[in-house]
């Protein structure tokens, strides 16, 4: 795999802070997206995404707020943007970091009015009934002592968050929805023959709603409530109706063929998921509270959040409601799409809750579906899932007007997933409750699990006790006090002696003694628990105990599970799942964090990276949190390094541990007093505009990418000097700064590879810089633009040294760029909303060398840049596909991003005369094609946004060329750079004076062709109808046409038409309408 940098970067800026995040996966949509997310602080973050490129984030302070530090962290594919005003709350655990996870916010469609759950101290929980200032809507969540609400844009909410009664504010996360053969398979008809149909039992379906008009469910819904804001509880998705039909449909529309498990149960309809199949934590919690208050004995939740250890808010609320009301919660274990089969520790919330009965998905042959999430529970190894049920290709009720799943006639559809397995168990619980009306959750849970039918070939971590069995559950006969014996977590180092005993109590409700044959079926037979008896006689109307002894020291590490069965003559066995989890080799790593004044650091984030293996699970945040100067965690043995930013109001220190081995319990000190100053200054009068400090670790395999940005002036920096070079991968520390004076900027970036030198406070003179004369043209006077310069270190660390410059065009500026091994790429933003951005190709600078960068100057032509830049623009044949990304307007020095949403475009590509691409965009990103030599024709027509472009209003281009069609090949397109040096910064040439049109020909950057160009042909027209050929003279590698525009042409905009060929047969033709102006 390609090397990927693990980054820790610190950026100081007085204005908007821009950073990057991990690139999107292959196959991402070709068009860019730009979105602005408003944080709960009132500040905003602009996120721009383009295929194959890193996400770009720009922090936009709330109007009227003072400058503040902004920390941006990239880890595990997520970008967190945290203003300094929120950092202390996150460190103290009062603010959920997900509130500042812009990746999650965008994924959940949250761009403003952020949904939150506000929790209150025990003594102040009545305050949950009152909304905080700056919020709108919401509801009280009594089970959590909380209120859900949405934060309105502005600062009113943020000013109230420090209220003493508020203990935590968290993001109201989204959750998603995850019979003719399956019901008989679980023994439903046998229970019906006993007169058990669920009559009198309330099953609450918490889902996308229920269609009350469906014949199988009509007249069966006792109460319904919408918790999504849809306005009514009707199912317009189809998922909830399908689930309800499995649990309690009566089969009317199919003459009983697709009858549910409890066909006479009463339904409660809690619409907690919207019509798109998703909802929020608070909607689910509110639905659980409502259903329990309505008297639901069984609650079906065919939905899932993220993987959990059972401590999340959904699970916490479920546990409380279940313990308070005795209601049974039946929850899907989750669908783990895209992961490897049998991936452990993936059971999702709220199925991970202690009180939830988590359900896995079985195929109709009894095997576990590959996408059914597995146990044991994350982090603590608890037994999960609890049961399994048929959930694949299940036919059930279809809501009117929906097309979810595969239609089966007019009234039914077929769906698969743990969502379909779950209501089989909920319906079975209703049958049991009809039989035992006084039973509560504990008794129901024990009976359901202990009467399950274990399916061969699948471990308990996939199916729990086995397939739910309504027949045995309702058959009467002997019972056992529990269906699970969870013997807990064995932490490393494991004691030499570790014997655990538990008692099982078997009860006989009949008037005749029953003999039970006991056995242990353990997945690791050599460490199977022992029973005090293999046969026990349970007296009539009495009980008998059996002691279970497990020697946990005999088994090594990992998940250990199996079943204890107790079988009466002629009956199915009672099942008790037994298991434990033996933690693999782990050692305690403890951190002590010391500030520069010697005091304990109250709160800080430590980024921890394993260098020689898989990254450890550090929880949803992916960091280690320092609280009151310390932090502890348990990790597998290996080689690690760690870093933390320890800061004060005027200084931030990057504290590094360097590589360290963890082979025993280890204590490390992160000491800000032992850093050395990092500073870059210049021999010039200029004010500091920003700084960035970055530490990069490049490994041989993909690793997480971490970045931290801060800002606020004045500020100084320090970093730990690691005295030994890395033994795994490479290390690089780099520091950048931008200074600004009138019409002048200084950009400095210094990378240090390996370890820091003894002196990292450097002062630079003018002769160490390259000089860049910059002109910012405009077709429309007084156009505001934003300029920024991106620096790239040898380790590919990205630096944006300081705030972006806001300019009003036309304008001129001189940049001094420190010359060393760093490379630079500049960009100019015309319109962020439509991603109208010009880029300059990436280049190196040399001390004392003067160059020019001209932005928005004639002639803008469609094509490709003269070198690779920050964003890809190229036409490349790879084995099996063609990648086409044109810049709508480009020349050798700058180019417009191919991903702009501005203007109109039409791209047509043919291969050997057959159309390959046709799109209204300047890109045909990644289209499959055959290999082998082929002739290509590309036609591109682009018209830019007239708001910004008065000239080059239309470019019509045509390329023909031949591809070898084998390995990766940058195709030999002919490109022309057309310049009119006499134009001013408004792209106008004065008439009546001599001027020139200069044409430079080149092939696409990176092409290996050696073909020579023939003399091009250039024509000019003042009206687009009458064309005049301009004589061209070759001079210095350019073709130059000399002309004088007549004074009568003032106010007009001549068009240019150019054709060119090369000796390999490639051709190029281009017509530029209104190429420049005349005055």
TrEMBL record:
Record's InterPro entries?
Peptidase_S8/S53_dom (IPR000209), Peptidase_S8/S53_dom_sf (IPR036852), Peptidase_S8_Asp-AS (IPR023827), Peptidase_S8_His-AS (IPR022398), Peptidase_S8_Ser-AS (IPR023828), Peptidase_S8_subtilisin-like (IPR050131), Peptidase_S8_subtilisin-rel (IPR015500)
Point out the coiled-coil segments of this chain. none
Q: Where is this region: Disordered?
A: 451-489
From the UniProt record, give one GO term of the biological process aspect.
Answer: proteolysis
Q: Does the keyword Protease apply?
A: yes
Would I find Ligase among this entry's keywords? no
Q: Which Pfam families match?
A: Peptidase_S8
Annotated signal sequence is 1-21
Give the GO molecular function terms.
serine-type endopeptidase activity
Q: Locate the Peptidase S8/S53 domain: which residues?
A: 198-466
Q: Where is the composition biased (Low complexity)?
A: 452-466
Q: Which residues form the active site?
A: 207 (charge relay system), 239 (charge relay system), 419 (charge relay system)
Q: Which UniProt keywords apply?
A: Hydrolase, Protease, Serine protease, Signal
- Family per similarity comment: Belongs to the peptidase S8 family.
Q: What is this protein called?
A: S8 family peptidase
What organism is the protein native to? Kribbella sandramycini
Q: What is the lineage of its organism?
A: Bacteria, Bacillati, Actinomycetota, Actinomycetes, Propionibacteriales
């Amino acid at each position: 795999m390609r090397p990927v940098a693990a980054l820790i970067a610190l950026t100081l800026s007085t204005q908007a802070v821009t950073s990057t995040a991990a690139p999107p996966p292959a196959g991402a949509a070709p068009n860019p997206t730009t979105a602005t997310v408003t944080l709960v602080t009132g500040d905003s973050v602009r996120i721009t995404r383009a295929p194959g490129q890193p996400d770009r984030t720009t922090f936009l302070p709330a109007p009227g707020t003072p400058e503040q530090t902004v920390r941006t962290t990239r880890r595990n594919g997520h970008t967190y943007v945290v203003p300094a005003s929120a950092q202390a709350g996150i460190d103290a655990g009062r603010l959920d970091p997900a509130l500042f996870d812009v990746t999650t916010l965008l994924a959940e469609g949250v761009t403003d009015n952020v949904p939150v759950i506000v929790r209150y101290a025990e003594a102040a929980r009545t305050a949950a009934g009152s909304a905080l200032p700056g919020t709108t809507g919401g509801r009280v969540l009594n089970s959590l002592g909380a209120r859900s609400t949405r934060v309105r844009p502005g600062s009113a909410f943020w000013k109230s968050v420090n209220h003493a009664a508020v203990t935590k504010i968290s993001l109201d996360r989204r959750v998603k929805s995850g019979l003719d053969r399956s019901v008989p398979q679980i023994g439903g008809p046998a229970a019906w023959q006993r007169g058990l149909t669920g009559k009198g039992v309330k099953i609450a379906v918490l889902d996308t709603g229920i269609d009350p008009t469906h014949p199988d469910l009509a007249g069966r819904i006792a109460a319904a409530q919408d918790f999504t804001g849809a306005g009514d509880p009707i199912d317009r998705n189809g998922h909830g109706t399908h689930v309800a039909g499995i649990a309690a449909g009566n089969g009317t529309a199919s003459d009983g063929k697709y009858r549910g498990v409890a066909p006479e149960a009463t339904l409660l309809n809690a619409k907690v998921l919207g019509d798109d199949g998703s909802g929020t934590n608070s909607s689910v919690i509110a639905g659980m509270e409502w259903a329990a208050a309505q008297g639901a004995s069984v609650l079906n939740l065919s939905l899932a959040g993220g993987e959990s250890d059972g401590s999340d808010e959904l699970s916490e609320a479920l546990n409380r409601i279940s313990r308070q009301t005795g209601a049974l919660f039946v929850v899907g274990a989750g669908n783990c799409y895209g992961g490897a089969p049998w991936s452990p520790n993936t059971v999702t919330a709220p199925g991970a809750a202690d009180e939830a009965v988590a359900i896995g998905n079985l195929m109709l042959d009894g095997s576990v579906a590959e996408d059914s999430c597995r146990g044991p529970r994350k982090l603590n190894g608890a037994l999960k899932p609890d049961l399994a049920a048929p959930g694949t290709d299940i036919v059930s009720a279809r809501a009117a007007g929906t097309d979810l799943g595969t239609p089966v006639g007019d009234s039914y559809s077929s769906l698969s997933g743990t969502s379909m397995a779950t209501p089989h168990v909920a319906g079975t619980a209703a049958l049991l409750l009809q039989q035992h009306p006084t039973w509560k959750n504990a008794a129901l849970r024990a009976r359901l699990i202990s009467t399950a039918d274990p399916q061969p070939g699948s471990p308990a971590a996939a199916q729990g006790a086995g397939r739910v069995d309504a027949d045995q559950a309702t058959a009467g006969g002997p019972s056992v006090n529990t269906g699970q014996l969870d013997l807990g977590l064995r932490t490393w180092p494991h004691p030499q002696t570790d014997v655990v005993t538990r008692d099982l109590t078997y009860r006989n409700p009949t008037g005749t003694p029953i003999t039970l044959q006991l056995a242990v079926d353990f997945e690791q037979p050599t460490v199977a628990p022992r029973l005090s008896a293999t046969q026990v006689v349970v007296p009539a109307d009495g009980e008998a105990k059996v002691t279970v002894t497990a020697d946990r020291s005999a088994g090594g590490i990992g998940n250990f599970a199996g079943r204890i069965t107790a079988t009466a003559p002629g009956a199915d066995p009672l099942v008790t799942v037994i298991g434990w989890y033996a933690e693999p080799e782990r050692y305690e790593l403890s951190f002590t964090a010391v500030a520069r004044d010697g005091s304990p650091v109250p709160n800080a984030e430590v980024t921890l990276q394993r260098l020689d293996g898989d990254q450890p699970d550090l929880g949803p945040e992916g960091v280690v949190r320092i609280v009151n100067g310390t932090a502890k965690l348990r990790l597998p043995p290996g080689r690690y390094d760690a870093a933390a930013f320890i800061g004060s109001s005027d200084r931030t220190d990057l504290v590094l541990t360097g590589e360290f081995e963890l082979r025993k319990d280890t204590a490390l000190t992160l000491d800000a007093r032992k850093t050395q100053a990092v500073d870059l200054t210049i021999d010039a009068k200029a004010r500091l505009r920003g700084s960035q400090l970055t530490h990069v670790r490049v490994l041989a395999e993909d690793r997480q990418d971490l970045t931290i940005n801060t800002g606020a002036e004045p500020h100084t920096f320090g970093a730990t000097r690691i005295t030994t070079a890395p033994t795994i991968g490479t290390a690089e520390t780099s520091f950048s700064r931008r200074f600004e004076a009138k019409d002048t900027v200084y950009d400095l970036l210094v990378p240090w590879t390996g370890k820091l030198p003894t002196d990292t406070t450097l002062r630079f003179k003018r002769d160490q810089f390259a000089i860049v004369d910059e002109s910012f043209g405009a077709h429309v006077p007084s156009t505001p633009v934003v300029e920024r310069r991106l620096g790239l270190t040898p380790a590919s660390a990205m630096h944006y040294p300081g705030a972006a410059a806001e300019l009003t065009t036309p304008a001129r500026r001189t940049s001094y760029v420190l010359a060393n091994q760093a490379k630079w790429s500049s960009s100019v933003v015309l319109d962020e909303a439509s991603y109208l951005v010009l880029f300059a190709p990436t280049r190196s600078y040399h001390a004392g060398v003067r160059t020019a960068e001209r932005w928005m100057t004639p002639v803008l032509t469609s094509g490709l840049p003269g070198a690779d830049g920050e964003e890809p623009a190229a036409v490349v044949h790879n084995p099996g596909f063609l990648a086409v990304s044109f810049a709508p307007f480009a020349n050798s020095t700058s180019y417009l991003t191919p991903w702009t949403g501005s203007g109109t475009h039409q791209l047509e590509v043919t291969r050997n005369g057959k159309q390959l691409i046709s799109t209204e965009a300047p890109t045909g990103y990644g289209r499959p094609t055959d290999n082998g030599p082929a002739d290509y024709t590309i036609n591109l027509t682009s018209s830019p946004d007239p708001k910004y472009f008065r000239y080059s209003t239309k470019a019509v281009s045509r390329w023909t060329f031949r591809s070898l069609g084998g390995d990766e090949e940058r195709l030999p397109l002919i490109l022309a750079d057309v310049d009119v040096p006499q134009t001013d910064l408004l792209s106008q040439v004065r008439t009546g004076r001599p001027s020139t049109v200069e044409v430079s020909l080149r092939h696409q950057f990176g092409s290996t062709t050696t073909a020579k160009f023939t003399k091009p042909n250039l024509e000019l027209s003042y009206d687009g109808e009458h064309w005049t050929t301009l004589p061209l003279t070759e001079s210095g590698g350019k073709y130059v046409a000399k002309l004088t525009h007549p004074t009568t042409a003032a106010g007009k905009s001549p068009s240019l038409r150019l054709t060119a060929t090369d000796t390999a047969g490639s051709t190029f033709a281009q017509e530029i309408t209104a190429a420049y102006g005349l005055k």
